[in-house]
Structures are given as structure tokens and as C-alpha cells.
Amino acid sequence: MKAVAKTTGGNFYKINNTKEINRVFEELPIIMRSFYTITYKPKLSKSGNHEIELEYDNLKDEKSAVTQTYYHTGEDLEIKEFLDEVPKKYWMIEADNLQKQFITVPQAVAFFDYNKEKLTDEYKKSVQTYINFLNERKNVEIIIFGHTDSKGKAEYCMKLSERRANTVKNYMVKKGINKNRIHIIACGKKYPKWFPEIHEWQKKENRRIEILIVK
User: Fold this and answer.
1) Which of 167, 181, 176 is nearest to 123 (CA)?
2) Among residues 22, 64, 141, 164, which is most buried (max CB within 10 A)?
3) Contact predicate 198/60, CB 8 Å
4) Within 13 Å and on the Cβ side, how many CA atoms surround 52?
């Protein structure tokens, strides 16, 4: 059964007593959670910047989790001017340090197993999307941000995150992208998506690569 689970991408649970059954059923909804794209027509017809708050079940306790973001209505959005009104994020600062203007917000395109730096096949499709974009838009470049989870010494995590970023860079270079168009920023464990990391899926989502398009 363990071999079947590994082959099919499932999980194998060896239950030694009845108390562990509850633990399995608590974990399953988290592992099998779904991701959704939410689209809607803004209630306000007025053009400009707005703030939105999304409340959702965090699958961990009775309390709901809340995330906050910003959106823009109208045809005149200039992303940098819009985000200048938002407190500066680490990726904005790094773009400024490289004297680059970002034209998107960063997207997580790959996740890694613990202490690993291999780009697995399931994430190559996401990376290929950026390769295609770079082939179409010769005037843009990218910044690759490497991240780790919170486990380990800061110095080791920094080096590991750099290796992960370089793994993606090397893959893109092999696909024909000029290496001079790709910038690497190692972040180590400084900028987690989830903190504290309670569940394994949170740790994995912290072990990520993000790509920012700049010019």
C-alpha cells in the first residue's frame, strides 16, 4: 500500500491505534484542499484603487483566516504607481536595488521538498509559461526569488534558497533564455508565506520560487 501511495501521489498512513484515525481525518481536508480563482464585478463603479478583504475557512480551527489585498477598477492602471501607495514589499525593494521597474507582482511558480533543490516535472509547466513570455517580450527581464521554510540555520537556508533559484535559472537558460535577463535573489527563510508553520503543506508553500517580471 505504501508503494501504491507513492506511485499515485497519495499518502500512506500506518495506524497503530484507534486514536490515530482522528488525526488522519483532520489532516485529509488540508492535504486535499482546493484552490479557486475568484472573479467578481466590483460594486463600486467609480474608477481607482480599492481595498478588499477576503475571509475564508483556514481548516485549522473554528476561527476564519482573513487576507487583504488591493484592486483597481478602470482602464488607466499603471501597476507601479498603484503599488506605490502600498507599503513596500521585499520584492519591490529588491527591484529598486537592481534599478529595475517591476511590471507585475511576483508569482510562486515552483515548490520544493524539504532540503531539496530539484525542479520537479509538475512545476516545469509553470516555468515554461515565463519562458514563453520572455521569448515574446524581448525587452523584459525577470527576478527569481528563492525561499526556504523556517527550519535550519539562517546561513544554510540562504545558500539553499540561492541553489533553488539557480535551478530554475539554469532550466530557463537551457531552454534558450539569455542568462543576462535573469536575476537571482536569495531570501532564505526571511519572507515566509506562512508563519508559524503548523502544517506540512505550509512548510512546502514556504519552500518556493517566485518570479517577478521587470524591465
Assistant:
1) 167
2) 164
3) yes
4) 14
Report the percentage of the chain scoring pLDDT > 90: 47
**DSSP β-bridge partners for residue 108:** 210
Domain ranges across the chain? 1-32, 33-214
Q: Which three cell numbers stand for residue 60?
A: 485549522
Taking Cα atoms as reference points, which of 68, 74, 39 lies closest to residue 52?
68
Cβ contacts of 70 within 8 Å, gap of 6 or more = 49, 50, 51, 52, 82, 86
Please state at what angle helix 121-136 crosses helix 154-174, rounded to 10 degrees.
60
CATH of domain 33-214: 3.30.1330.60
Q: Which helix (H) or strand (E) holds 54?
A: strand 48-57
103 versus 44: the higher-pLDDT residue is: 103
184-207 pLDDT per residue, tens: 999 999 999 888 888 888 899 899
Name the residue among 89, 109, 91 with its Cα closest to residue 167: 109
Q: Quick count: other Cβ atoms within 10 Å of Cβ 177? A: 18
Q: Could you tell me the CA-to-CA distances from 37 to 49, 73, 148, 215 in Å, in that order?
A: 21, 18, 26, 28
Cα–Cα distance measured from residue 184 to residue 97, given in angstroms and rounded to the nearest whole number: 12
Contact 111, 207 (CB under 8 A): yes
Q: How far is CA 40 from CA 71, 73, 75, 120, 195, in A?
A: 11, 12, 17, 34, 29
Whether pTM > 0.90 for this model: the answer is no
